[in-house]
Each structure stands twice: as structure tokens, then as C-alpha cells.
Amino acid sequence: MTDSLAVRDLSNLVKPEDMITSEHLVTLLAIVPKYSQKDWLASYESLDTFVVMLTFVRASFMVFFSLF
């Protein structure tokens, strides 16, 4: 499928076991443009004091976007 990750259904890319929800943890999905990936990886840990360091996983990659 060639639709942008920003507008397509992600249910076929993200499995239920990829999602963590507990009293203290929630999974965040971020769709990042290809040309901003370096900035995202350098700065996502500073989004909040509760972001767990070094925990990103690239779930999918398309020509112009990645899903982390």
C-alpha cells in the first residue's frame, strides 16, 4: 500500500502485543517524516521526564515516513 502512514490504518502494522498500557506505562506511536528522523531520534527522550530512554522501535518504514 502506498498511502502515507499519517493517514492509513495502522492496525496491520502494529500488533496488540506491541502496545503497552499499564498504571505507569503507555505506548506512543509517532509518525516521523523521513527527513526529520535524525532529529526525532535525538530528541524524543526529552518530550517528557517520564519517557523511558532508548526504548524506540521502528515499527514500519515507508518512502517518506517511519512509524516509531
Give an overview in words.
The protein is flat. The longest helix has 7 residues, at 37-43. It contains 1 helix and 3 strands, in the order E-H-E-E. The protein has one domain (16-67). It has 68 residues and is largely without helices or strands. A hairpin with a 3-residue loop joins strand 2 and strand 3 (65-67). The protein has a 3-stranded antiparallel sheet, with no helix packed on it. It has one helix at residues 37-43; strands at residues 31-33, 60-61, 65-67. The model has no long low-confidence stretch (mean pLDDT 77).
Topology overview:
Elements: E1 31-33, H1 37-43, E2 60-61, E3 65-67
Antiparallel strand pairs: 1-3, 2-3
Number of strands: 3
Helix content range of the residues, please?
10-25%
Helix run count: 1
Overall mean pLDDT stands at 77
Low-pLDDT parts are: none
- State the end-to-end CA separation: 18 Å
Major pleated sheet:
3 strands, antiparallel
**Judging from the principal axes of the Cα atoms, what is the shape?**
flat
Derived from helix and strand composition plus strand pairing, the structural class reads little secondary structure
CA radius of gyration: 13 Å
Q: Can you list the strand order of the major beta sheet?
A: 1-3-2
Strand content: 5-15%
Which series of helices and strands comes N to C? EHEE
The domain tally reads: 1
Short description:
This protein has 68 residues and is largely without helices or strands. It contains one helix and three strands.
List its salient traits.
1 helix; 68 residues; three-stranded antiparallel β-sheet
